[in-house]
């Protein structure tokens, strides 16, 4: 008989964006040392997802196991632009250490950080060999960022062979369907709909459904889903970014959402693109003034 997976619910909450639920329900009894480390990693990553970087940095000390040290690095990296250089330097040093460099959580964090840096080739150096479902799922994301849906599909097939019903396999399938577009959008929508029927509604699920609706031209439905997501987290970057796009298609004012995004996520791609477009427009005006 297979041993029971004590962390199934915790993992699922984390994967689907129910971060507070993951934290609140993390007191799981009778865990092995390995499971306890995984539990703590997921809890601290949930705090990171909620923006509580300093809590993670202060609670994980230098004697903690490698996976927790890696999670602390992620918190430091995300805590502010002045931390990025030193964090990446430490990360590269650890990755080069033969004793810990192949740790799957360290490789996962490396992939996440280098993906944030848009250094996708460097990210793949550490994630491409896989080893865990999270690493395979991250590979799918990286390949989609590189506009290589063919490689993303190969990763998805590996995940489907391991566990077709796994939450991360379903999510990766939805991401790929959204990237491919066309008739695949409806398939992606059905995956998010299935999640919404099985599990508590999260911002991640609502945004997934909303993006599908937008791609199918159903902007009114997308807007109502995004406003529901905004009620759950008024500062969520993806919700605000999607609301900006949705509002523009509906002919509605999007300036308030853009202002909120600029304040809470100044490094967001949409904020940077908007700033670049405004600069280009100002330069164009000066040439004809």
Automatic annotation (TrEMBL):
<keyword id="KW-0333">Golgi apparatus</keyword>
<dbReference type="GO" id="GO:0006890">
    <property type="term" value="P:retrograde vesicle-mediated transport, Golgi to endoplasmic reticulum"/>
</dbReference>
<comment type="similarity">
    <text>Belongs to the COPE family.</text>
</comment>
<dbReference type="GO" id="GO:0030126">
    <property type="term" value="C:COPI vesicle coat"/>
</dbReference>
<keyword id="KW-0653">Protein transport</keyword>
<dbReference type="InterPro" id="IPR006822">
    <property type="entry name" value="Coatomer_esu"/>
</dbReference>
<dbReference type="GO" id="GO:0006888">
    <property type="term" value="P:endoplasmic reticulum to Golgi vesicle-mediated transport"/>
</dbReference>
<comment type="function">
    <text>The coatomer is a cytosolic protein complex that binds to dilysine motifs and reversibly associates with Golgi non-clathrin-coated vesicles, which further mediate biosynthetic protein transport from the ER, via the Golgi up to the trans Golgi network. The coatomer complex is required for budding from Golgi membranes, and is essential for the retrograde Golgi-to-ER transport of dilysine-tagged proteins.</text>
</comment>
<dbReference type="GO" id="GO:0006891">
    <property type="term" value="P:intra-Golgi vesicle-mediated transport"/>
</dbReference>
<dbReference type="Pfam" id="PF04733">
    <property type="entry name" value="Coatomer_E"/>
</dbReference>
<dbReference type="GO" id="GO:0005198">
    <property type="term" value="F:structural molecule activity"/>
</dbReference>
<keyword id="KW-0968">Cytoplasmic vesicle</keyword>
<keyword id="KW-0813">Transport</keyword>
<keyword id="KW-0472">Membrane</keyword>
<keyword id="KW-0963">Cytoplasm</keyword>
<dbReference type="GO" id="GO:0000139">
    <property type="term" value="C:Golgi membrane"/>
</dbReference>
<keyword id="KW-0931">ER-Golgi transport</keyword>
<dbReference type="InterPro" id="IPR011990">
    <property type="entry name" value="TPR-like_helical_dom_sf"/>
</dbReference>
<dbReference type="GO" id="GO:0015031">
    <property type="term" value="P:protein transport"/>
</dbReference>
<comment type="subunit">
    <text>Oligomeric complex that consists of at least the alpha, beta, beta', gamma, delta, epsilon and zeta subunits.</text>
</comment>
<protein>
    <recommendedName>
        <fullName>Coatomer subunit epsilon</fullName>
    </recommendedName>
</protein>
